Amino acid sequence: MFRILEKGLLAPRVNRYVVHAPQVARSWRAGQFVIVRPREDSERIPLTIADGSAETVTLVVQEVGKTTAVMADMQAGERLADLCGPLGVPAKIEKVGGVAVVGGGVGIAPAYPIAQAHKTFGNHVIAILGARTRELLIMEEEMRRASHETVIVTDDGSRGEKGFVTTALQRLLDLGRTIDEVVAVGPAVMMKMVAALTRDAGIPTRVSLNTIMIDGTGMCGGCRVAVGGRTKFVCVDGPEFDGHQVDFDLMMRRQAMYLDHERGTYEDYLETRRCRLDATREPSRR
């Protein structure tokens, strides 16, 4: 169970895994996630399902800390210790008309099934994809297939337009394009800026949050956020919420609480990885 069938590099430090998990594969819907433990001694991490088939789920993982680094070192043929799900409330998919699906960075991966679902439901989907550079842009072709129109933006202009996803979204609005709903998935600051823009424009906006999470069942409270002045738990009430009601500043402060600890454990693991690689190298011949 949970054997990694395929592994591929999408961008620097971003890997795509196809994992054999038939029970999860038969039940998941766009917007849902799983809790993964790569090895027996690993911590648990939430990963949104990016795609699936009758027997497999696809996970896109960015190496940002120790646990994702452990997973990055795993190869096709190995087994994950745990994969629990599907968890969370599926994305809200309704016939609304024009939908802009905004994906930033690795957030493009979970945006993909949401775009697919909206297109299947009969909405006109405009995908807006953003990345810092061309090399960091992922799943462009998949998103083109899942949408009717695709707009690419990069911070440095190396792919598509130069600017941010909000730049592209504002331009579409200025052109009078019909956008009845926006869905944003990506870094918290990106979703905050998208929500601020659409609030002023009066466009309903859904955001998919990725917070600190431990059990994924609402027991630990680590993923709590303030939405409309009320406490919500991303794992059981989300991960999708009304972007105009989310207190992003509070959420980002909570996300930063353990950064120093996470950075330290990641650096320790990188040193362990370096020593392991050095030990496997053939001694140089003189």
Care to describe what's here?
- It is a single chain.
- The protein has helices at residues 22-25, 66-72, 108-120, 140-146, 165-174, 188-201, 234-237, 248-255, 259-280, and strands spanning 4-11, 14-20, 33-37, 45-52, 56-62, 82-87, 98-104, 124-131, 149-154, 161-162, 181-185, 205-208, 224-227, 230-233, 240-242.
- The protein is an alpha/beta fold.
- The protein has two domains: 4-87, Beta Barrel (Elongation Factor Tu (Ef-tu), domain 3); 98-255, Rossmann fold.
- The radius of gyration is 19 Å and the shape is globular.
- The mean pLDDT is 94.
Sheet with the most strands: spatial strand order: 10-9-8-7-11-12-15
Helix content: 25-40%
**Protein structure class:** alpha/beta
Distance between the termini: 47 Å
- Quote the average pLDDT: 94
CATH homologous superfamily of the largest domain, by name? Nucleotide-binding domain of ferredoxin-NADP reductase (FNR) module
CATH topology of the largest domain: Rossmann fold
Order of helices and strands: EEHEEEHEEHEHEEHEHEEEHEHH
CATH class of the largest domain: Alpha Beta
Report the CATH architecture of the largest domain.
3-Layer(aba) Sandwich
